[in-house]
Every structure is written in C-alpha cells, then in structure tokens.
Design goal:
CATH class of the largest domain: Alpha Beta
Number of helices: 13
Order of helices and strands: HEEEEEHHEHEHEHEHEHEHHEHHHEEE
Number of domains: 2
Number of strands: 15
CATH superfamily of the largest domain: Metal-dependent hydrolases
Distance between the termini: 45 Å
Strand order of the largest sheet: 3-2-1-4-13-14-15
Structural class: alpha/beta
Length: 435
Amino acid sequence: MLATTIGVGDTMRKLGLLLIAATMISATPAAAQTIDVRAGRLIDPASGQVLADRRIRIVAGRIAAVEPWRDGAPALDWSGYTVLPGLIDMHTHIADGADDEGSDPAAPFKSTEATTILKAVKAARTMLRAGFTTVRDAGVYRGLTDIDLRDAIEAGTIEGPRMLVAGGYITTPGGGGDVSGLARDMPIPDTFRVGVVRNPGEARDRARYLLDQGADFIKLIATGAVLAIGSEPGSLELSPEEMKAACDEATLRGKYCIAHAHGAEGIKAAIRAGARTIEHASYLDAEGIALAKAKGVWLDMDIYNGDWIEEFGTKQGWPAEYLRKNRETTDVQRRGFSAAVKAGARLTYGTDAAVYPYRFAGRQFAYMVRFGMTPLQAIRSATSEAAKALRLEGQVGTLAPGAYGDLVAVAGDPLADIKLLEKVAAVVKAGQVVR
C-alpha cells in the first residue's frame, strides 16, 4: 500500500515540476564564464580578516582567485559594499511551502501536493534573495517533495538556494513529526507518514528507505514539539535504541542524522545515539553542553522564533497549546544559548524559517549577538562553521579558491551593525547574479 501511494505521489511531483517549468522563469545555469567582482571591503569569516578593495574572480561558477584590485572594469562593481560568502541556514522548511506572512503550522495538510510545490518554489526564491545561497531543509510532512525541489534547483529549472534535504521525519506515531490534531477516524495518507516508526528495526528500515530515495541526511524527532498538538517539547519520543538504529544506518551510507530535541534528556540521548547536530535544544543544560563539546556536535538553536510566534501567532489565533509551549521554551532556550556560547560549544545558524516569513531569515543574527556572540561569531555560524557541520568545508561559506562563487553584499559594516544582514543589497550564487 505504501509503495502504491508513493508511486502516485511521484507522478504528482513530476507533473508539478513540469507545471513549474512551463509557467515560471527558469534560473540560468552557471555557464563557463568569467566574472570579476570588485569588493570595497571583504570579510573572510574563517580568518576574521577584513580586506579592502579586492577582486573576486569567479570562473564557471567557482571562485578562481581573490586578490587586490588593480585595474580593469568589473563585471559587478560592489566597491561601495562589504562582501561576504553566501549565507547558510542550517534549519529551514522551504519544501513544505509556508505562506509569505508566516506559517499556518497545519498548512501542508490543507493543501494539495501541487499547491505545496508551487508555494515551495516561491519560498525557495525568497530565501535565496534574502542572501541564503545554501540551506539545509530540515524535513517535510509530505514525504520526498523536498528531494524533488532540491533536484529542480540543482538542474536550474527554478531559482533557489543549494539544498540538502531529509525526505521526511523519523518519528513515533503521534509524535512531533507525525500528523496530529485530526479526528480519530480521519485517514492519513501514507505520504505523510514515510518515517513513522515503532521500534529500532523500523527506524533502520525507514532511514534506509529515505536514503535510497535520495535524502542527504536523516532527521530524528527525538522529543516533542512546540508546533504540534499533543506533543510536549520536554518529553522523549524516540527511544535511544530507535535513534541509534537510524543513525547507524546513516553512517553506514556515509550520511549522518540530525535531531529535533528540545528536552534536556532528549538532547543527550540524541548526542549519544550519534546525531551530528541538535536542533532547537530549548532545555539545554550544562551536561548537554559538555557532552556536545566532547562529541564534536553542533547546536543549532532558533532563538529568534519565540518572539515571532508570540506576536504573530497570538494575533492570528494559533492554538493555545502552541502559544503556551512557545512561552515555556523561549527564554530558557536563550539562556541555554548564552551558556553554550560562553562554554565555547559549536553553534550554527538555524532559524526554522517557515515558522516566520522567509524574507526575515536574517533576523536571527541580531539575536545571536544580543545573547552572547560577537558579530564575527554570528557570521561564522552562518558561513564557515555551518560549512563544517554540512561536511562542505571549502565548498560553501568561504571565499577561498575552489569554493562555489556565492556572495552577498551589504551597504555598511556588519561587524559594527549585524542587523545589516537582515536586508542584503545583492546576491550571487555560483557566479550568477540573483539580485
């Protein structure tokens, strides 16, 4: 039954992508061309150096050289701007196709597959134009649609950031990654439950299935969620054995797993099971920080979200359960973030974009500085440090020769005013001008 349902879903996805190709302007693939960018100032996140008046030469979509500007006419004159590598968001939900003005958390269940795909196309374009040239899309409710979106962007069919995707969620029945809040007699399509598991054997099988379909990593829902009915953030949902089985399968395939984990015990259980990054980490404690440091695990904490949910969710009448859980986790998460920064833990830039509008993806930078980071640390979290966590060091998050020609420009100095990254002036992805 599962195979039959997924087959129909595959057909719908192909039809949706054909519709997209026929009705939307395609992104231009990187050609074998040379482009020279004149950067007034250049920030190298890894070294912390700020260099003046630099030529960035991009050949066939890759950076060929960064050197002092001497002469000639630049293809892009950014001499009035500060230039950084393209930004990386480690936790987005683009493929679920949230609305522009903030997410209705139940939107994926209220939309057809074609509608979701079309919304996702717009979301991807918005995210890219906000300066995020690479993203990790941290799971979808409608299984596998993120894989097709990633592939369409890579093929140049549509415009969007470079994507790494999960294909779905490994979750318990009724857990934070399952469909919840529906009537007991309402049937749930199998495409929404591609990762629902009941024991370690099923966790391994579902991880294997998602990787076979083209997932880049495995997403575990280790604990309950804020935006899910009947799921408490502090409660462990997947067992340690289920998480380890999924992570072992990912490792066997040369991949890794990440874990949605709010609760303190869930965070530690996920780290011990082999998770590479911990998402949210709301109830992070000192033992969890020490364990993350000892295991080389990154913490990916969405510390802006709480304010948006409180303001927008209250205004829009989101379920009282969502708002209650958000209030319980917001301040404690920020205290944990500050403690992690002070302790020297590895931290990356992950926003949960979709909960709030994609065009606001840069708002978290100011929160990271407010709660303990220097501006350079915040920039590194979305460039060089994120690249390490993605296993793409030297490919993204850097302006070193050989990396993708991904650039953003801002009018001013983000090391003095980090809020400048909330509204980038220009974007280049793989040598192609986006805006």
